[in-house]
Structure to design on (554 residues):
């Protein structure tokens, strides 16, 4: 974990309200798939926690949705050559075991961003079956990266791109044939709940959670989630990746 | 290089910079980023007698220049802290144990458990985010005096700092109430009670609805309150509220603070405290200040 003044290399729109920001850190940073960073936007007291999509040495790419004033400032105010403070790498990340050969990746909307890092990390040694859902055609992004999968199914809620339906539906239509050893997922809570209902306890599954954060390092206890036993876990430090059977998605 | 040492109730601190309670855990996470032994002291996460789960999420929101939090005193309980974290932390730097009871009796019990084991106790009678305890004790002078007296009587050796709420009618009167109750020092301000509404959902952002407001935007109010408290009592005062840089820290010291706590800025910049310490030295050198303690209460009022 380091605090670095990164230099923006590129900050471009890749879909409706979605931007891809690539920056160079002052030194190479080892990043595991599914880890995230805290990006400081000038004038905003809280940093923005963003999943890392790609990491190669000093070159890091994060993607984000413009949702409020902070991400709007990030999209408009940061161009090539600007510096931006970044704390990284944070969180536990996704981990695929040696014996797990077939990996199903299930992503929804902006939840595909941490999964891109999984696909990049494991596409060579594993068979990756990806099921990613978007709201509509204009929101579809990351196709080039997702196509590193052995099989890719893209869905949209309105059928304007790929298959009509959801990522979890697409997974379930293929699960008997594919027989994944492990499922890795990230997306909106209703999608994660649907996944838990469909496969919870039957196939090992890990999900990356999103929560409003304070410090990003586990000290402030702002971004907690409930575990099934009732205990709280810190999304930033104990997660963001949790065992689907252990995390309470209703809290 | 200027002398940054300050003395708090007979104990020497390397410098006046202390990460504020609730923003720094027990120090372990930030210790992965820098050597926390450089800090003047560490104020721990608020400790209760039994473990507490805290509030539902979202627990944090942002507004212009400030944040709001409603963590609700999630902590593993005072005994867990004593067994698991205290020895490690005390090896690094001075420890200010922040304690919160659900009733007056519990404040006494927690203080008794920590007596002699920490360098200072900071009595949290000003947390706005819990239903029982916290700020309930910190609003009225009579209850401040009472809970301070109970805590002080549970302590044989460890000095008692009382952390005051800014959500009050007269900070001077409450400062005097804590002094009468036997406080050895004061710290202020805790957070201001506030609310932020998500206008798309037409609901407050925080699950708790209200939360404590902190960050750069509260600083002028905090500086004024620290000055009023410092003028009202003879005991030392620790200042905090929106400190983002060395200049802010100096402002609080000139208002009468003998040390400062840095809270929200730890989120904005994880290296905030080391930077402020370095910049305090540079500021003193540039301004011909040999001892930073000479700045305490140095601001003279106009007219």
């Amino acid at each position: 974990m380091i605090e670095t003044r990164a230099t923006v290399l590129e900050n471009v729109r890749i879909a409706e309200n979605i931007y891809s920001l690539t920056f160079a850190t002052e030194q190479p940073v080892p990043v595991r798939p599914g880890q995230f960073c805290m990006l400081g936007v000038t004038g905003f007291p809280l940093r923005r926690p963003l999943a890392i999509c790609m990491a190669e040495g000093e070159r890091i790419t994060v993607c984000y949705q413009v949702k409020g004033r902070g991400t709007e400032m990030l999209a408009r105010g940061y161009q090539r050559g600007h510096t931006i403070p970044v704390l990284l790498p944070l969180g536990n990340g996704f981990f695929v075991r040696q014996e797990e050969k077939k990996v199903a990746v299930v992503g929804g909307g902006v939840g595909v961003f941490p999964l891109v890092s999984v696909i990049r990390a494991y596409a060579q040694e594993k068979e990756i079956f990806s099921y990613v859902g978007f709201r509509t055609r204009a929101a579809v992004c990351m196709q080039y990266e997702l196509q590193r999968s052995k099989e890719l199914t893209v869905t949209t809620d309105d059928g304007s791109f790929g298959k009509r339906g959801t990522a979890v539906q697409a997974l379930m239509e293929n699960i008997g044939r594919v027989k994944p050893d492990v499922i890795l997922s990230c997306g909106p809570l209703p999608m994660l709940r649907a996944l838990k209902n469909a496969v919870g306890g039957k196939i090992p599954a890990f999900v990356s959670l999103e929560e409003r954060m304070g410090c990003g390092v586990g000290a402030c206890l702002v971004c907690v989630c409930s575990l099934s036993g009732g205990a709280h876990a810190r999304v930033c430090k104990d997660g963001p990746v949790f065992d689907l059977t252990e995390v309470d998605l209703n809290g | 290089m200027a002398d940054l040492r300050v003395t708090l109730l007979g104990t020497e601190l390397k410098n006046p910079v202390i990460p504020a309670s609730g923003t720094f855990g027990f120090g372990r996470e930030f210790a992965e980023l820098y050597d926390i032994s450089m800090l003047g002291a560490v104020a721990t996460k608020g400790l209760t007698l039994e473990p507490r789960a805290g509030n539902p999420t979202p627990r944090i929101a942002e507004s212009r220049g400030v944040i709001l939090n409603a963590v609700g005193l999630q902590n593993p309980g005072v005994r867990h802290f004593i067994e698991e974290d205290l020895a490690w932390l005390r090896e690094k730097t001075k420890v200010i144990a922040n304690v919160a009871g659900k009733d007056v009796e519990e404040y006494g019990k927690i203080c008794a458990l920590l007596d002699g084991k920490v360098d200072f106790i900071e009595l949290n009678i000003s947390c706005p985010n819990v239903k029982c305890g916290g700020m309930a004790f910190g609003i009225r002078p009579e209850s401040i005096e009472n809970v301070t007296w109970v805590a002080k009587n549970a302590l044989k050796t460890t000095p008692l700092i009382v952390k005051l709420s800014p959500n009050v009618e007269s900070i001077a009167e409450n400062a005097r109430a804590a002094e009468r109750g036997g406080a050895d020092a004061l710290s202020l301000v805790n957070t201001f009670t506030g609310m932020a509404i998500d206008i798309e959902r037409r609901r407050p952002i925080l699950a708790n609805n209200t939360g404590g407001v902190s960050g750069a935007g509260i600083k002028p109010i905090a500086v004024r309150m620290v000055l009023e408290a410092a003028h009202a009592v003879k005991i030392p005062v620790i200042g905090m509220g929106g400190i983002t840089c060395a200049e802010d820290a100096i402002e609080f010291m000139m208002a009468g603070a003998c040390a400062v706590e840095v809270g929200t800025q730890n989120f904005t910049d994880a290296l905030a405290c080391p930077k402020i310490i370095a910049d305090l030295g540079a500021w003193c050198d540039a301004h011909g200040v040999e001892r930073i303690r000479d700045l305490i209460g140095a601001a003279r009022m106009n007219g």
Summary: The longest helix of chain A spans residues 167-178.
